[in-house]
């Protein structure tokens, strides 16, 4: 049981470090003339992620997982998602944030996984919220928070894309590249 809690707390610590980085990046974007959009729904995103970990901890405590060889599958998927997360975050650099921060006149990042899809970080979060609880056989957490996350992201992505269309080259960059197909044009 200690190993289970340890793994969950390592992921929580990772997310807390990401919040610190996001706050530093937000300060930098603001210093460059950028601003936040979608502030209204951000609190629900934070609440969702907080309750996700609370639910996961409660579920593994109330119903401790049993050893099953199949849990290696969601665990490996989760580990691959972590590599994808790092790739997406480092590709965005100072533009990565947990908030929707926009910088008027900036060129959108279209390198790394952003060459292939518009929102790789969201695809990774969707994957994590689904598979991480499955590692611990926390089925309720996986199902409930996957649905809630889909609702929040349906709002967030729309807000983010509209803001980026208004103040950056977002639309022209992704029209050229497509949503899911990489472009070989330069």
TrEMBL record:
<protein>
    <submittedName>
        <fullName>Isoprenylcysteine carboxyl methyltransferase</fullName>
    </submittedName>
</protein>
<keyword id="KW-0812">Transmembrane</keyword>
<keyword id="KW-0808">Transferase</keyword>
<dbReference type="GO" id="GO:0016020">
    <property type="term" value="C:membrane"/>
</dbReference>
<dbReference type="GO" id="GO:0004671">
    <property type="term" value="F:protein C-terminal S-isoprenylcysteine carboxyl O-methyltransferase activity"/>
</dbReference>
<feature type="transmembrane region" description="Helical">
    <location>
        <begin position="41"/>
        <end position="60"/>
    </location>
</feature>
<feature type="transmembrane region" description="Helical">
    <location>
        <begin position="67"/>
        <end position="88"/>
    </location>
</feature>
<dbReference type="Pfam" id="PF04140">
    <property type="entry name" value="ICMT"/>
</dbReference>
<feature type="transmembrane region" description="Helical">
    <location>
        <begin position="122"/>
        <end position="155"/>
    </location>
</feature>
<dbReference type="InterPro" id="IPR052527">
    <property type="entry name" value="Metal_cation-efflux_comp"/>
</dbReference>
<dbReference type="GO" id="GO:0032259">
    <property type="term" value="P:methylation"/>
</dbReference>
<keyword id="KW-0472">Membrane</keyword>
<dbReference type="InterPro" id="IPR007269">
    <property type="entry name" value="ICMT_MeTrfase"/>
</dbReference>
<keyword id="KW-0489">Methyltransferase</keyword>
<keyword id="KW-1133">Transmembrane helix</keyword>
């Amino acid at each position: 049981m200690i190993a289970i809690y340890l793994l969950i707390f390592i992921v929580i610590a990772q997310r807390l470090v990401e919040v610190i980085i996001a706050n530093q990046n937000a300060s930098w974007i603001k210093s460059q003339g950028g601003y936040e959009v979608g502030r209204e729904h951000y609190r629900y995103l934070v609440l969702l992620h907080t309750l996700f970990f609370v639910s996961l901890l409660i579920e593994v405590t109330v119903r401790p997982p049993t050893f099953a060889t199949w849990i290696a599958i969601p665990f490996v998927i989760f580990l691959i998602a972590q590599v994808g997360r790092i790739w997406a975050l480092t590709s965005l650099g100072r533009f990565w944030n947990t908030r929707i921060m926009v910088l008027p006149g900036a060129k959108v990042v279209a390198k790394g996984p952003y060459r292939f899809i518009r929102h790789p970080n969201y695809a990774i979060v969707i994957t994590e919220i689904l598979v991480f609880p499955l590692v611990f056989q926390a089925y309720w957490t996986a199902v409930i928070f996957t649905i809630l996350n889909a609702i929040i992201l349906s709002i967030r992505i729309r807000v983010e894309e509209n803001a980026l269309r208004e103040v950056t080259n977002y639309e022209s960059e992704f029209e050229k590249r497509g949503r899911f197909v990489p472009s070989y044009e330069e």
